[in-house]
Amino acid sequence: MAVQSQKYELILDSLQKLLESRNLQTISVSEIAQTAGIGKGSIYYYFPSKDAILDALVERNYEKPLATAKNLSSQTEIPPFTRMAMIFQACRNSSSEYLRSREGKGTGAQEESFLHQKYLNHLITELKPVLAEIIRQGIDKGEISFDKPDALAEIVLIILTVKMDNTLIPSSREEIENTIAGLVSLLEKGTDNPPGSLNFLMSGF
Q1: Mind spelling out the 3-state secondary structure of the chain?
Q2: Which of 72, 95, 170, 202 could lock onto 83 through a cystine, CB 3.0 to 4.6 A?
Q3: Would you tell me the crossing angle of helices 109-140 and 63-72 to the nearest 10 degrees?
């Protein structure tokens, strides 16, 4: 099992290495296998396609914040908005690490946009049910007054991930802070929390 896991990780490492200087469309499964130093057939033992390898790479790169989020969702002794802030900070750190890792790479704007969309889609899809559950717990405890937890989770995640990424809609620090402040204000009013009580959600922006 350990050997299989090593090969799986090696395949992901190889695609990540190739993506440092190549466009995804120009990378073949054979090249991934060659870079990994394994046979092409071994690739298909673990992954049905190149797209599946990319999806697994995306999942691995967001493993830490997602694990943090899922762990926090069960810690009901921590106030829901505090848990939300901790999740957002973990995601911001992961996003910053990813963007730093892409600096100076030889990929073009279209390729970068495609990769970012993959990352953001994965992040929102995985975090939405976790965040919605935290909001539901807050509603049940009377700490949050809102009747659409899934919608609220999706709205918050879309705004935060776009601002954290800051490539889809490039903004100045002041613009980002204004947007997040607006989101915090809407959250306070929409969930019947007093003004300023959720300012800590802006931590790190």
Answers
A1: CHHHHHHHHHHHHHHHHHHCCCCHHHCCHHHHHHHHCCCHHHHHHHCCCHHHHHHHHHHHHCHHHHHHHHHHCCCCCCCHHHHHHHHHHHHHHHHHHHHHHHCCCCCCHHHHHHHHHHHHHHHHHHHHHHHHHHHHHHHHCCCCCCCCHHHHHHHHHHHHHHHHHCCCCCCCHHHHHHHHHHHHHHHHHHCCCCCCCCHHHHCCC
A2: 72
A3: 10
Residue 36 is encoded by which pair of tokens? 């990994």
Mean pLDDT of the region 124-141: 90
The tens digit of pLDDT for each residue in 48-74 reads 999 999 888 888 877 777 787 888 888
CB atoms within 10 A of CB 136: 17
Higher-confidence residue of 168 and 13: namely 13
The amino acid sitting at 178 is N
Predicted confidence at residue 20, as pLDDT, reads: 77
In order of 10, 123, 204, the CA distances from 85 in angstroms are 34, 16, 10
Half-sphere exposure of 137 (CA within 13 A, CB side): 19
